[in-house]
Write a structure and sequence with these properties.
By secondary structure, this protein is mainly alpha-helical. It folds into 2 domains: about 5-140, Ribonuclease iii, N-terminal Endonuclease Domain, Chain A (Orthogonal Bundle); about 140-215, 2-Layer Sandwich (Double Stranded RNA Binding Domain), CATH 3.30.160.20. About 55% of the residues lie in helices and about 10% in strands. The protein is built from 10 helices and 3 strands, in the order αααααααααβββα. The protein has helices at about 10-20, 25-45, 50-60, 65-75, 85-90, 95-115, 115-125, 135-140, 145-155, 195-215, and strands at about 160-170, 175-180, 185-190. The radius of gyration is 22 Å and the shape is elongated. The model has no long low-confidence stretch (mean pLDDT about 85).
Length: about 220
Protein backbone atom coordinates (compact mmCIF):
# COMPACT_ATOMS: atom_id res chain seq x y z
CA UNK A 1 0.00 0.00 0.00
CA UNK A 2 1.28 3.42 -0.95
CA UNK A 3 2.24 5.53 2.05
CA UNK A 4 0.04 8.55 2.58
CA UNK A 5 1.90 11.83 2.13
CA UNK A 6 1.76 14.17 5.14
CA UNK A 7 0.02 17.36 4.02
CA UNK A 8 1.91 19.58 6.47
CA UNK A 9 5.17 18.77 4.66
CA UNK A 10 3.92 19.25 1.09
CA UNK A 11 5.34 22.35 -0.57
CA UNK A 12 3.18 23.80 -3.39
CA UNK A 13 5.86 22.88 -5.95
CA UNK A 14 5.61 19.19 -4.97
CA UNK A 15 1.82 19.27 -5.00
CA UNK A 16 1.84 20.77 -8.49
CA UNK A 17 4.27 18.18 -9.86
CA UNK A 18 2.40 15.23 -8.38
CA UNK A 19 -1.15 16.39 -9.00
CA UNK A 20 -1.94 16.71 -5.29
CA UNK A 21 -4.73 19.16 -4.47
CA UNK A 22 -3.71 20.00 -0.89
CA UNK A 23 -0.35 21.48 0.08
CA UNK A 24 0.82 22.97 3.39
CA UNK A 25 -0.38 26.53 2.75
CA UNK A 26 -3.74 26.27 4.54
CA UNK A 27 -2.09 24.61 7.52
CA UNK A 28 0.69 27.21 7.53
CA UNK A 29 -2.01 29.91 7.74
CA UNK A 30 -3.50 28.23 10.80
CA UNK A 31 -0.13 27.52 12.39
CA UNK A 32 0.91 31.15 11.98
CA UNK A 33 -2.13 32.29 13.99
CA UNK A 34 -1.58 29.66 16.68
CA UNK A 35 2.10 30.50 17.06
CA UNK A 36 1.48 34.25 17.25
CA UNK A 37 -1.11 33.69 19.96
CA UNK A 38 1.08 31.37 22.05
CA UNK A 39 4.14 33.60 21.77
CA UNK A 40 2.06 36.68 22.62
CA UNK A 41 0.58 34.90 25.64
CA UNK A 42 3.99 33.83 26.93
CA UNK A 43 5.41 37.34 26.49
CA UNK A 44 2.36 38.83 28.22
CA UNK A 45 2.89 36.52 31.20
CA UNK A 46 6.68 36.93 31.31
CA UNK A 47 6.84 40.73 31.03
CA UNK A 48 3.90 42.12 33.03
CA UNK A 49 5.30 45.66 33.20
CA UNK A 50 6.17 46.14 29.53
CA UNK A 51 3.94 47.90 27.03
CA UNK A 52 2.37 46.82 23.77
CA UNK A 53 5.08 48.34 21.60
CA UNK A 54 7.90 46.45 23.29
CA UNK A 55 5.98 43.16 23.41
CA UNK A 56 5.11 43.50 19.72
CA UNK A 57 8.77 43.95 18.82
CA UNK A 58 9.72 40.89 20.88
CA UNK A 59 7.04 38.80 19.20
CA UNK A 60 8.07 40.01 15.74
CA UNK A 61 11.59 38.74 16.34
CA UNK A 62 10.52 35.41 17.84
CA UNK A 63 8.15 34.58 14.97
CA UNK A 64 10.40 35.98 12.23
CA UNK A 65 11.29 33.78 9.28
CA UNK A 66 14.90 33.67 10.39
CA UNK A 67 14.05 32.56 13.92
CA UNK A 68 11.46 30.00 12.86
CA UNK A 69 13.81 28.53 10.27
CA UNK A 70 16.19 27.78 13.13
CA UNK A 71 13.41 25.91 14.94
CA UNK A 72 12.66 23.93 11.78
CA UNK A 73 16.29 22.87 11.47
CA UNK A 74 16.42 22.00 15.16
CA UNK A 75 13.51 19.60 14.59
CA UNK A 76 15.03 18.31 11.31
CA UNK A 77 11.97 19.48 9.41
CA UNK A 78 14.29 20.47 6.55
CA UNK A 79 14.69 16.72 5.96
CA UNK A 80 10.91 16.19 5.83
CA UNK A 81 9.85 18.93 3.39
CA UNK A 82 8.56 17.57 0.09
CA UNK A 83 9.72 19.84 -2.72
CA UNK A 84 9.32 19.82 -6.46
CA UNK A 85 12.40 19.10 -8.57
CA UNK A 86 12.89 22.73 -9.49
CA UNK A 87 12.60 23.93 -5.90
CA UNK A 88 15.05 21.26 -4.75
CA UNK A 89 17.63 22.46 -7.28
CA UNK A 90 17.21 25.98 -5.92
CA UNK A 91 18.01 24.72 -2.41
CA UNK A 92 14.47 25.05 -1.11
CA UNK A 93 15.20 22.99 1.99
CA UNK A 94 17.59 25.76 3.10
CA UNK A 95 15.22 28.61 2.26
CA UNK A 96 14.29 30.47 5.47
CA UNK A 97 10.78 31.29 4.28
CA UNK A 98 10.04 27.67 3.34
CA UNK A 99 11.51 26.38 6.60
CA UNK A 100 9.48 28.88 8.63
CA UNK A 101 6.29 28.02 6.76
CA UNK A 102 6.94 24.32 7.36
CA UNK A 103 7.36 24.90 11.09
CA UNK A 104 4.04 26.75 11.23
CA UNK A 105 2.34 24.04 9.20
CA UNK A 106 3.79 21.39 11.51
CA UNK A 107 2.39 23.29 14.50
CA UNK A 108 -1.06 23.37 12.87
CA UNK A 109 -0.79 19.60 12.37
CA UNK A 110 -0.11 19.17 16.09
CA UNK A 111 -3.06 21.41 16.93
CA UNK A 112 -5.46 19.46 14.70
CA UNK A 113 -4.28 16.15 16.12
CA UNK A 114 -3.69 16.94 19.80
CA UNK A 115 -5.11 20.38 20.55
CA UNK A 116 -3.89 23.75 21.77
CA UNK A 117 -2.54 22.49 25.10
CA UNK A 118 -0.06 20.23 23.33
CA UNK A 119 0.94 23.07 21.02
CA UNK A 120 1.62 25.28 24.01
CA UNK A 121 3.85 22.64 25.58
CA UNK A 122 5.80 22.20 22.36
CA UNK A 123 6.24 25.93 21.69
CA UNK A 124 7.53 26.47 25.22
CA UNK A 125 9.92 23.57 24.66
CA UNK A 126 11.07 24.66 21.20
CA UNK A 127 11.54 28.25 22.35
CA UNK A 128 13.19 27.24 25.61
CA UNK A 129 15.34 30.14 26.77
CA UNK A 130 13.97 32.53 24.15
CA UNK A 131 11.53 33.98 26.66
CA UNK A 132 14.23 34.51 29.27
CA UNK A 133 14.35 38.22 30.22
CA UNK A 134 18.11 38.38 29.61
CA UNK A 135 17.70 36.92 26.11
CA UNK A 136 14.87 39.28 25.25
CA UNK A 137 16.75 42.27 26.64
CA UNK A 138 19.71 41.30 24.50
CA UNK A 139 17.56 41.57 21.36
CA UNK A 140 17.04 45.28 21.78
CA UNK A 141 19.50 46.53 24.37
CA UNK A 142 21.87 47.84 21.71
CA UNK A 143 19.43 49.82 19.64
CA UNK A 144 16.72 51.34 21.84
CA UNK A 145 18.34 54.75 21.39
CA UNK A 146 18.62 54.43 17.62
CA UNK A 147 15.08 53.06 17.38
CA UNK A 148 13.77 55.98 19.41
CA UNK A 149 15.67 58.52 17.33
CA UNK A 150 14.47 57.00 14.07
CA UNK A 151 10.89 56.90 15.30
CA UNK A 152 10.69 60.49 16.54
CA UNK A 153 12.46 61.87 13.49
CA UNK A 154 9.75 60.21 11.44
CA UNK A 155 7.29 62.50 13.19
CA UNK A 156 9.48 65.53 12.58
CA UNK A 157 10.51 65.82 16.23
CA UNK A 158 13.94 66.95 17.38
CA UNK A 159 16.61 64.48 18.44
CA UNK A 160 15.97 63.04 21.95
CA UNK A 161 18.13 64.57 24.68
CA UNK A 162 19.60 62.67 27.64
CA UNK A 163 20.82 63.85 31.03
CA UNK A 164 21.94 62.14 34.22
CA UNK A 165 19.59 62.86 37.11
CA UNK A 166 21.45 60.97 39.81
CA UNK A 167 24.47 58.81 40.58
CA UNK A 168 24.25 56.64 43.66
CA UNK A 169 26.15 53.85 45.33
CA UNK A 170 29.88 53.26 45.91
CA UNK A 171 32.31 53.75 43.03
CA UNK A 172 32.53 50.01 42.31
CA UNK A 173 28.72 49.61 42.31
CA UNK A 174 27.49 52.82 40.73
CA UNK A 175 23.86 53.14 39.68
CA UNK A 176 22.94 55.85 37.20
CA UNK A 177 19.50 57.38 36.81
CA UNK A 178 19.06 58.97 33.38
CA UNK A 179 16.25 60.97 31.84
CA UNK A 180 15.43 61.29 28.16
CA UNK A 181 13.25 64.09 26.81
CA UNK A 182 11.33 63.80 23.54
CA UNK A 183 9.70 66.78 21.84
CA UNK A 184 9.46 68.63 25.18
CA UNK A 185 6.42 66.44 25.93
CA UNK A 186 7.62 62.97 26.82
CA UNK A 187 10.07 62.34 29.62
CA UNK A 188 11.19 58.90 30.68
CA UNK A 189 13.82 57.61 33.07
CA UNK A 190 15.98 54.52 33.29
CA UNK A 191 18.48 53.07 35.74
CA UNK A 192 21.62 51.10 34.99
CA UNK A 193 25.06 50.16 36.19
CA UNK A 194 26.51 52.34 33.42
CA UNK A 195 25.45 55.55 31.73
CA UNK A 196 24.91 53.64 28.49
CA UNK A 197 22.68 51.05 30.11
CA UNK A 198 20.63 53.73 31.89
CA UNK A 199 20.17 55.64 28.62
CA UNK A 200 19.08 52.49 26.82
CA UNK A 201 16.47 51.72 29.46
CA UNK A 202 15.22 55.30 29.43
CA UNK A 203 15.01 55.14 25.63
CA UNK A 204 13.10 51.86 25.82
CA UNK A 205 10.46 53.41 28.07
CA UNK A 206 10.29 56.58 25.96
CA UNK A 207 9.79 54.51 22.83
CA UNK A 208 6.82 52.77 24.44
CA UNK A 209 5.37 56.15 25.43
CA UNK A 210 5.83 57.50 21.91
CA UNK A 211 4.05 54.47 20.47
CA UNK A 212 1.19 54.85 22.93
CA UNK A 213 0.75 58.57 22.21
CA UNK A 214 1.66 58.90 18.54
CA UNK A 215 1.54 55.35 17.19
CA UNK A 216 -1.59 55.84 15.12
CA UNK A 217 -0.51 59.16 13.63
CA UNK A 218 1.03 59.31 10.18
CA UNK A 219 4.73 59.98 10.04
CA UNK A 220 6.09 62.81 7.94
CA UNK A 221 7.01 61.73 4.43
Amino acid sequence: MKKKVAQHFIHPSYAHEHGIKADYQRMEFLGDAILNFLVALKLYETFPEDGEGYLSKCRAHLVSKKHLSQKARMLNLDKEILLGAGERKLGGSENERILADTYESYLAHIYLKKGLRRCKILVNKHFNGDFDPSFIQGLFSEDHKSQLQERVQGFGFSTPSYRILEEKGPSHEKVFLTEVCVNDEIKATGEGSSKKEAEQRAAKRALEMVEERYGNKKENR
